[in-house]
Amino acid sequence: MVRILAVEDGGFKSKFFWSKRKGKTFLVCVLADDFKIEKIFLSYVTVDGLDATMCLSKIIRKIRDKLDVIMLASIAYAGFNLVDPEKILNQFKVPILIVNPKKPDDKAVEFALKKHFKDWMERLSIVRKAGKPSPLKVNEKIVYVYCFGLKVEEAEKLVKHLTVFGVRPEPLRVANLIAHGLGMVN
Amino acid sequence: MVRILAVEDGGFKSKFFWSKRKGKTFLVCVLADDFKIEKIFLSYVTVDGLDATMCLSKIIRKIRDKLDVIMLASIAYAGFNLVDPEKILNQFKVPILIVNPKKPDDKAVEFALKKHFKDWMERLSIVRKAGKPSPLKVNEKIVYVYCFGLKVEEAEKLVKHLTVFGVRPEPLRVANLIAHGLGMVN
């Protein structure tokens, strides 16, 4: 049995209008034992802020039992609010696994950071820590993983074990559905 | 495979201070095929209002494929905001099953309605439509079910099939976890 914390973010308006990108969105965390959802944590994170690492730390601190792995959908949450996987790994000694069904475009990220952020160097250094992703074949499709504190072989075993529908491991898929539901609330 | 819509509500402050009960809380709906979560819908409902039936109707209308059953945790959402199961059944021709791990206390409900609501007769008539619950033994515990448009035997089969952990069928358990997470957001 693997104890996972899967992290997704909610959407926000004006995604493609840089001058209007502001406010908060949700950070959705699903705590699961394999396929059993144990608990849902929600927090607010600032669109294009730099508080995602702190928000995630706060949530992890609430979890009493030892986590086996933290699963991220990306390094960037709420726009370019970057989660620093190294910081989380050092602080909690829990491996971090980023599972992204899309191939990250590092050049586009660098371009956007330089264009829109005064503190682009700080942000880019977090992106660069992640290095190059490893492609994995899951359910006949490719996902891109970044591993911190675990080997690619371990990541592959984990992702294959937990992916049932589509290309997202179940806890991430459910976190994604909740995040999407939150975006649609009316 | 059973297609279920499971409905829970979020908490609200001042639950035990009647004069301060106001505002909105969440209605959380989990659409599931057996154990596979397909989609999450969220809506706001008024604490002690009477808009829960309408809010639920709006969500059901968004679901394209035929539902097999709508699973409620109670008739009363967001305080005494009552979902009228007969109305939903007549409108959508989908059976409604209420699964409550606690034995409902009809006398206490009637007392509270008469004491705090001018429109208590309207509310009480919805409560009375539900009639008496049938006790079912699930995982060595008793749950109380109310059936609209399906037989108790069918309800028993369904509840036993879908209950894996504790006394709540999985979609209701997950809806409950999301509602709880929404209540804890900070």
Characterization of the model:
Two copies of one chain form a homodimer. The first copy, chain A, is of the alpha+beta class and 186 residues long. Chain A has a single domain, classed as archaeoglobus fulgidus dsm 4304 superfamily (archaeoglobus fulgidus dsm 4304 fold, 2-Layer Sandwich), CATH 3.30.2170. Chain A is 35% helix and 29% strand. Chain A contains six helices and nine strands; from the N terminus they run βββαβββαβααββαα. In chain A, helix 1 (52-62) packs parallel to helix 2 (85-92) and helix 3 (106-116) packs antiparallel against helix 4 (120-130). Chain A is globular, with a radius of gyration of 16 Å. The A-B interface holds A 26, 28, 36-44, 164-165, 173-174, 177-178, 180-182, 184-186 and B 26, 28, 36-44, 164-165, 173-174, 177-178, 180-182, 184-186.
